Amino acid sequence: MAEDVWRTVDDHFGRMLLGPDPVLDAALEANAIGGLPAIDVFPAQGKLLHLLARSIGAGRILEIGTLGGYSTIWLARALPPHGRLLTCEIDPRHAQVATSNLAMAGFAEIVEVRVGPALDTLSTLDPAVDGPFDLTFIDADKAANTEYFEHALRLSRPGSMIIVDNVVRNGRVVDAGSDEPSVLGTRRLAAAVAQEERVSATVIQTVGAKGYDGFLLALVH
Ligand code: SAH
Ligand code: DHB
Ligand code: MG
Q1: Largest CB tally within 10 Å, which of 79, 127, 146, 219?
Q2: pLDDT at position 1 over 90
Q3: Is the CB of 39 under 6 A from ligand 1?
Q4: How far apart, in whole angstroms, are the C-alpha atoms of residue 191 and residue 149?
Q5: pTM, entire model
Q6: How far is the CA of 203 from the centre of ligand 3 (A)?
Q7: How does pLDDT run across 11-54, given as a tens digit for each residue?
């Protein structure tokens, strides 16, 4: 019952405010044909990422967890002509579909998909050379969220924004008895962020066409 209403309301405002989007539809279709799991951000959330990136005038964006590049396209659309987006993906098949989707969306020159474990890629990044990144979107394996967040912070500047997806997962985050690596990873992340004096953060719970979840948003002081 609740899920039906969430979906209907998402569709209702989506039709009005997001409109038809052949580029994103084609990306999702290519993902499905390629056998990628449909775990992209939901459309209203993609647009929120886009609006946040625009509102802070982001010129450099870092993404951890590309999948087929659906969230990447939303973020890349926020960039100015000389903006840059670096996105990290461990699965070469996902990266291949994403690269094709990003080219179809017109972002071949602006976006770089770096294939490999994100921690390896992040370790090679120098804030003075590759960054600083104005916005980082963390959306990969949740067990490593704390390490991703630390790298994001290292590669940030005062005023940078860091967003972490899927921190609620149907409320499983508050199940103290859970031994799910993703739940433990997210609990560890929240504890680290709470102790981190360089950021101020909040978590927003979300419902919609993709169920009940939420994201963490942190602003670097
Ligand atoms: N941000 C995407 C969804 C990402 S799904 C969107 O909203 O459209 C999570 C992705 O993280 C998957 O493609 C998965 O292969 C990738 N991933 C998982 N572990 C990873 C790792 N250690 N390093 C880099 N990417 C990883
Ligand atoms: C999963 C991962 C995601 O990034 C997401 O948005 C939804 C689900 C998953 O691994 O199940
Ligand atoms: Mg996600």
Answers
A1: 79
A2: no
A3: yes
A4: 12
A5: 0.98
A6: 14
A7: 999 999 998 999 999 999 999 999 999 999 999 999 999 999 99
Please indicate whether residue 165, judged by its CB atom, sits closer than 6 Å to ligand 2.
Answer: yes
Atom number of ligand 1 nearest to Cα 41: 7
* Best CA proximity match to 172, nearest among 217, 216, 213: 213
Q: Which ligand is nearest to the CA of 71?
A: 1
pLDDT range class, residue 191, cuts 50, 70, 90: very high
CB 72 within 8 A of CB 44: no
**Res. 152 pLDDT band, cuts 50 70 90:** very high
Is residue 157 within 8 A of residue 134, CB to CB? The reply is yes
Distance 67 CA to ligand 1 centre (A): 5
CATH architecture, domain defined by 2-220? 3-Layer(aba) Sandwich (3.40)
Do residues 104 and 23 lie in contact, with contact meaning Cβ atoms separated by under 8 Å? yes
Domain ranges of the chain: 2-220
Token pair of 204 as six digits: 């927003």
Cβ neighbours for 168, distance < 8 A, ≥ 6 positions apart: 203, 205, 206, 212, 213, 214
DSSP-assigned letters across all residues of 98-153? HHHHHHHTT-TTTEEEEES-HHHHHHH--TTTT---SEEEE-S-GGGHHHHHHHHH
For residues 179 and 1, which has the higher predicted lDDT (pLDDT)? 179
